[in-house]
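User: ok so my PI wants both of these folded by tonight, can you help

Assistant: No problem, let's get them done. Here's the first:
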Amino acid sequence: MSFKCGIVGLPNVGKSTTFNALTKSRNAQIANFPFCTIDPNIGIVEIPDHRLEKITKISNSKERINSLITFVDIAGLVKGASKGEGLGNKFLSHIREVDMIVHLVRCFDDPNIQNVNNTVDPLRDLEMIETELTLSDMESLEKRLDKKNKNKISNSEEKNFLSEIYKNLSEGLDLTSKINSYDKKLITFASTLSLKPKIIVCNVNEDDILKGNSHVDKVKNKYKNTNVITISADIERQISELGNEDANDFKKDLGINESGLDKLIKVSFDTLNLNTYYTSGAKESKSWIINKNTTAPDAAEIIHSDFKKGFIKAEVISYKDFINFNGENGCRENGKLRIEGKDYVVRDGDILHFRFNI
């Protein structure tokens, strides 16, 4: 399992620079004018995982396979995007395909970088983006709920859910806090932008990366129920151009402990309620992304559907025990390998081996 993050924001807030830095690529065109990005740029990145590195070393695996995260650099939205302004309808369709929305907002003052508005105001920018997403959702829901629609919804539960979402949106309610209370299948069916998990990323100048600034403070005060992180797209660009050792020295000189990519991945896992488990052997060590509270058979299905169909038991070693007792053999000898059944809820960091029979 991997997940896809869509980076959205107004033109010239640093989306393409951030995308290139996060993906260590030059796939995204960068220029100082609106609508520089029209078609979305897609970058697939290995998720850095120090636990997997240690597991691979202890198992002496021939190959290490990290989980992946996909970043989609979606073109800049403008006021009226829901009505097609600035190619808005096309941009909004790209957002519907991602698992999570990353709102990148400009929190820096620089007269040399063109701004679509006269002043820097991240709250205004966020409100503008949210308004366009809401209007797009309402238009979509109106069409689906229209009695004249040839493809009208027959399932009453689904129809009632769409009606509830439409009512909440029309009343100006923020649905972010309600996401976890809705059934995931209904959320997927609704396919609304307003129900997608989101993170707000404040793009600041290099001088403000440690303490932030008044723009960042305003965002954090307003969006207390949303994960907000601060990065500097320019710093991320410089880190991406350095080797690992030089990048670490550069971060130390700046006084930062982790890159923007590390921050974003950590907060993404929290926002999407994700965990990681591992499989390990002589051939390969691999990480697998699962939802929290996933049972062993469902975790096995991610590897192959037959693993769930024929599930018998799961051999389980905690990450801590795997490290402390130097791998699987040491854990067996010291009674740290457990046999768990179908009801076992996989914990973050578990090393698993599935027994199955088809």
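One down. Here's the second:
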Amino acid sequence: MKKLFLILAGLTALFLAYATYLALKVAPTDALQGDVYRIIYYHVPSAWTAFLLFFINFIASVQYLARTKASLQKAVQWFVIGIGVVGVIATFLPQVQALLPTGMRPSAVATTVLAIPAFYFLLGWKFPGDRMDMLALTAAEVGVVFCTIVLVTGPIWARPVWGIWWAPGDIRLTSTLVLWLIYVSYLVLRRFSSSAQTQIIAAALAVFGALDVPLVYFSIWFFRTQHPQPVIGGGGSMDPRMLHTLLISWMAFLCFAFLVCWSRFRLELLKREAEQAEAMESLVGAGTAAKASLPLSRSAR
């Protein structure tokens, strides 16, 4: 396992280096923004990666809450299957297609809908028991890191283009900040709360926080915003070399996020195993002390 991790780490480093080379040397300069636009190759992949990690956190949190009761778990499974079937069929109905933003393909929406049941059952199979809660925590932690990169690189990009660091009334900027604050609150709750219900409360908070992700994504379609319109998935176009570089950068970021999540998950697993071993030692020690005191009590009589 350690050897595989080192191999993947080396490949990820090469992938990141290649993506940086494409971003700085191969991708053409934007005609309007100049070279400052190249921050897109870090800003946008970080946002996409954060959204994916928050999505995984959402699925893991729903799974964790559903496992509290067998009947609830079965009901949620059928509900998720229903979402996949109805969602795919609905995206190809003319009435639904008329509601989609201009340029958004129904096939892309159908693929996104199918990802919900696919991730739900895949994660449920690969992460049984408390490992689902560990996955939720790991995805949230790494997702917050990438969301922080988005909030840092955004103003750096905005300053020379918009003339200001931050536009308080911009719905995408504000909703992204709210998303970051929700998940930071989630991590603070997980870190400092010692209640027996902490994991359940945190999972409920994560489900609530995930509702902000679609708002962040669709805000530039449904609200007047200073943020640029999308150039992928409708609303514009992009030079093929720019698009190639952007996708390569995203793949590199995904590999890096996977490695960080892998390392963090293993660390959390070892931590909980150590806590369980310590608890067992305490119980064994308490039982031994009780047995040792038993003859003394009888002799005292």
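The two ends are 59 Å apart (CA to CA). The chain has ten helices and no strands. Good luck tonight!
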